Amino acid sequence: MSLSSEIERTGIHAGSPVRRVATRAIFFVTGMAMGLWAALVPYAQLRTHSEAGDLGLLLLCLGAGSLLSMLVSGRIIGKFGCRAVIVAAVILYCLMLPLLAVFSDIWLLALSLFIFGMGIGLADVAVNVQGTLVEQAADKPLMSGFHCLWSVGGIAGAGGGALLLSAGITPLGSTFFAVVLVVVVTAYSFRGLLPFGAHEEPEEGQQKARPNFRLMLMAVMAMICFMAEGAVLDWGGVFLTQDRGLALEHAGWGFAVFAVAMSLMRMTGDAIVSALGRKRILIIGGILGIAGYLMVVLLPGWILPLCGFALVGIGAANIVPVLITLAGQEKVMPVNMAVAMVATLGYLGVLGGPALIGFIAHLSSLYVAFSAVAVAFLVITLGAYKLKY
Q1: Distance between CA atoms of residues 21 and 29, nearest Å
Q2: Up-side HSE of residue 239: CA atoms within 13 Å toward CB?
Q3: Do the Cβ atoms of 233 and 354 come closer than 8 Å?
């Protein structure tokens, strides 16, 4: 479906405020679901009696489910549109959230995480495609603001989950609060979701086009940034409680601090991108990511490592929004396919990366694993010089 025919049919321009609000809302609820999982990870580890290596395998199921759905997401979104895919994905991960809070059998939990990951993966790609189309139609930077709501959702999920758990609410009860909120917000946003998945039907030649070097580099850079984010999401709480002496009920603080810093940077991210340029955003962000992770592994106690997680959030805040925007501007593939490709390989970092970190921690320690993430940020800093702006 073309953009002009959609405007004629609904009277709602793709760049209208209704579309922008709906896009932000889906970013929010998806981030909240992932943030709540961050607060539940230590409890899942206790229920299943998992060691670092076993927990890494468990988290790999989440990444595998997401990767499976993301691999076909571009074509699914192009065929059914952003709206249908987003609604189906939200229903899927809402059904799984309560199961993640109660299963003590590691195989049942693994299956639930796999399906949960499928829902998160589809929602992530579809809302990024919608965000790219809305941004292009509005003809001004919007992507950092969209991703800001994912960070705010992460705060609501991780921080809010930690507060509920501290107040004596069970993990299962905490998930019910989240599911109700997700359903209400998604229903409110339904009208603003795009029924189509690209501005226009791609030409046959475009469908068969292969990604160029820049798209592949963007995917690797996004993967590293998301891996750094996933390390905080799934391992930050474990590191702070087991290695830094933080109380178990406050395990979600690591990701909450990271998400607060990220969201604050993204609130003004579009203005910052306009002022500094996308290239400088990538270079500076990579340097701050390195510095933040070095603070986490080198400084004592739990307060200073929390500050390190915050610095990582500041540096990573606008990297992925910039990369998604640049991917949507490449002409070798349709928008839905280009964004889906970068998002698919990128989100593999946040969903599959923690499993890799678990293996490294099992062989050595989380100190070594987090140090490896710091080194990986060099690829983002150096890769910024190879992209087209």
Answers
A1: 13
A2: 33
A3: yes
